[in-house]
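task queued by scheduler; priority normal; single chain, no ligands, no partner chains; default sampling; output format set to C-alpha cells
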Amino acid sequence: MDRTSVTVKQYQYTEEKPSLIARMKKIEGQSKGIQRMIEDDRYCIDIVQQLTALSRAADEVSMLILESHIEGCVADAIREQHGSAHIKELMGTIREAMKR
C-alpha cells in the first residue's frame, strides 16, 4: 500500500495538542520533583500533598481528552447512527475512572 494514500484520523483533541503536551510536561516535572522529595527523605505529608496535586493534574488532562472524545468521536458516531458502541465504551471508561 502506498503510504501517501493512508488517511490519518484527526481527533478533536489535536486542536489542543500544544496545551495538552505542556500539561503533560508539567506533570512529568511534578513526578520528578516527588521522586527527589522521596530520595531526600522529605516529610510524608508534603509528599502526599504533591502526589494529590499530580493526580488532580492528570485527572484534568483525562477530562479534557474525554470532553474532546465526546464532542468529536461520540458526536460523529451518533450523527452516523452508530453511536451505541461509542457510548458503551465511554461509559466503561467513566466507570473505571470513578472507581478511584
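post-processing summary
- The chain has one domain: 16-98.
- The first helix runs from residue 17 to 39.
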